[in-house]
Every structure is written in C-alpha cells, then in structure tokens.
C-alpha cells in the first residue's frame, strides 16, 4: 500500500512548524549510512580520475552505471525483493536518476578531466551552500546553534582547501571544468531537497536500480552525442579493473547515500558529506601522487571538526526528541484540546 505523509491537524500550530521529513526516518540509521557513504564516495573520485584517463569519460560513466544497474537488479531478484516502482515512487526515481546521478555524472566526468580529483570533490561538495537556505525556507529545518557553527566551520575548512588563487584562470578548460563541477553540486543539492519532500513506497535499496537505469539512459545519450566516434579498449586490463571497481562502488554509494538523505535532515546530510572530499584528498595523495601542503592539512582538520559538530548536534537533537514528553496530550503540561 502507498504510504502517505500525515499532514498537520487543523489548528495544530506546532505540527505546522515541524520540519518536513519522510515518515519513518531513523536518524541513527542515517548517521551510520552517512559514514559508509562518505568513505565509498571519497574513494570514487580518485577512481573516476583514473577511469577517464583510460577510456572516454562518458562511456566510462555509462558502463559504470549500466553495470551497477544490472548488479542491483540481480541482487534484489536473488533476495526476492525486486519490485516495480509505483506512481508514488516515480518522482524519486527520476529526481535521483537525473539530478543525483544522470546529469550529475555527465557533468562530473567532463569536469574531472581538467580538475584534480581532490579539488573536483571539493567543488562538488559545496552542496551545503545550496541546501541550507532551501532546507530552512521550504523544509522548515532548524539550524540551531550547534548545526550553524558546524556548518560555518565546515565551509571555512572547504574555503581553506579550495584556494581559488591556485587556479589557472587563463585556462579556458580549467574554468569550464570548475563551472561544470559547481553546476553538478547544485543538481545534487536539488536532489537532496526533492528526496526529503517526497513520500515513496519502496525503500532506498529497492529504488536504487531504477534510479540507476534512468541515469544509464542519460549517460548513454550523452556518450553517443558527445563521444560517439570514440571506442573503449576492452583489452586494457587496467581499464577493466577500474570499471569493475567503479561499478561496485556506484551500487554501494547510491544505496548508502539515498539512505542517508532518507533518514537525516537535509542540512545534516549535506554537511556530513563534506567528509567526502577529505577522504578523496587523502586517497588522491596516496594513489595519484597529488601534492599535500599545510593548507590541505589545516583544511582537513577544520572540515572534520565541522562534520563532527553537526553530527553530534544531530545525535543530541534525536536524544532530546526521544526523551521529551508529549506536551500536546491531555494530562500533560501542554494545552488541552
């Protein structure tokens, strides 16, 4: 049966002021999923950087999405949990399939050709800049002192790492690459907001292969249009290994990312994902030989501090909500109906 989000009762001012969230959200599950998603998303960016050097970027994106789609369809079929999405699920299928995956992946793969993997992750995860005002206005989320300070600290660390003075602003390719990555960040933010507004019947794992299918269709269209004259060298063992790893990472990261957004407020999730470029930068240094300097170390510490502050604020909010008596019930200190 379709699940409907209960609306506020007439005259219930408190309900009307409550943040908008999908029913059944469990913050502790969201925090656990956020940790897993952060690690795997962080590993994805260096892998993409390698992948687009070994094969045409958009074809790499398509085969990565198509492989993850088949993998999740097979897994859900084996578990007996494969279901067709209902009309209530379709907005989330297309919202994530287009904004968080399809168009986002096309922009990211094109942008990362001219931007280092670590810096590319930083640009994409400017998401809190776009999510925060939208979530406060349209989702009625409350920043609170802890979240606000954590947000500002995290963005401050991002600014330290971003350092636009280090860009080659005379390079047209560099400017376009950075612009594409910022646009991808805006699309990711809109997908997060859409997921918080939407009520859907299937769980995030059941929705994932359908979302990936939409993304694969978008990636295929882009590859045919922009790289139709290029081919993949299927005899290149390194390229196949990177593609296989990318396929597995894509399947896991989509499930954990959408689960995070499903269970956590949009602001908490978007600030928590600031940990992704931290993981990406560390792996880029270790695997790709990208340089590390004092600003990188300072930025990493500041970002992790901000993420920790927001996460602890979320844990505190959850505990207070659980322990707070329901003052709206008769017999409590709140008003009687």
Explained architecture:
The protein has 337 residues and is mostly helical. The protein has one domain. 73% of the residues lie in helices and 0% in strands. The chain has helices at residues 13-17, 27-54, 57-79, 90-111, 117-124, 127-138, 144-162, 172-197, 204-227, 237-263, 266-272, 275-288, 294-323. Helix 2 (27-54) packs parallel to helix 12. The two termini are 32 Å apart. Mean pLDDT is 79; it is low at 1-16 and 325-337.
What is the compact description of this entry?
This protein has 337 residues and is mostly helical.
Which labels suit this protein?
337 residues, mainly alpha, 13 helices, disordered N terminus, disordered C terminus
Work out the radius of gyration: 21 Å
Q: How is the main sheet built? A: none
Query: How many β strands by DSSP?
Result: 0
Task: Tell me the number of helical segments per DSSP (H or I, 4 or more residues long).
Answer: 13
């Amino acid at each position: 049966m379709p699940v409907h989000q209960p609306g506020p009762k007439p005259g219930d001012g408190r309900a009307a002021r409550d943040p908008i969230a999908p029913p059944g959200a469990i913050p502790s599950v969201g925090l656990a999923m956020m940790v897993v998603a952060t690690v795997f998303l962080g590993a994805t960016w260096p892998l993409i950087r390698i992948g687009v050097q070994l094969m045409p970027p958009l074809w790499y994106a398509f085969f990565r999405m198509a492989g993850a789609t088949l993998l999740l369809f097979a897994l859900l079929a084996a578990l007996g949990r494969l279901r067709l999405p209902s009309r209530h699920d379709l907005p989330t299928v297309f919202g994530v399939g287009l904004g968080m995956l399809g168009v986002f992946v096309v922009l990211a793969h094109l942008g990362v050709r001219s931007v280092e993997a670590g810096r590319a992750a930083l640009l994409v995860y400017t998401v809190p800049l776009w999510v925060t005002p939208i979530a406060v206005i349209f989702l009625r989320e409350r920043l609170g002192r802890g979240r606000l300070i954590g947000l500002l600290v995290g963005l401050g660390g991002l600014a330290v790492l971003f350092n636009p003075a280090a860009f080659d602003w005379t390079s047209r390719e560099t400017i376009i690459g950075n612009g594409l990555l910022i646009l991808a960040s805006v699309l990711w933010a809109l997908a997060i907001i859409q997921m918080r507004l939407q009520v859907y019947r299937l769980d995030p794992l059941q929705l994932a292969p359908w979302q990936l299918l939409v993304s694969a269709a978008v990636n295929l269209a882009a590859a045919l249009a922009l790289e139709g004259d290029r081919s993949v060298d299927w005899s290149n063992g390194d390229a196949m290994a990177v593609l296989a790893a990318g396929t597995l990472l894509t399947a896991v990261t989509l499930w954990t990312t959408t689960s995070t957004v499903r269970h956590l407020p949009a602001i908490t999730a978007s600030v928590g994902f600031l940990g992704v470029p931290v993981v990406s930068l560390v792996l880029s240094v270790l695997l790709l030989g990208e340089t590390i300097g004092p600003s990188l170390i300072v930025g990493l510490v500041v970002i992790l501090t901000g993420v920790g502050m927001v996460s602890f604020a979320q844990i505190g909010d959850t505990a207070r909500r659980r322990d707070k008596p329901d003052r709206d019930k008769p017999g409590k200190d709140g008003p009687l109906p």
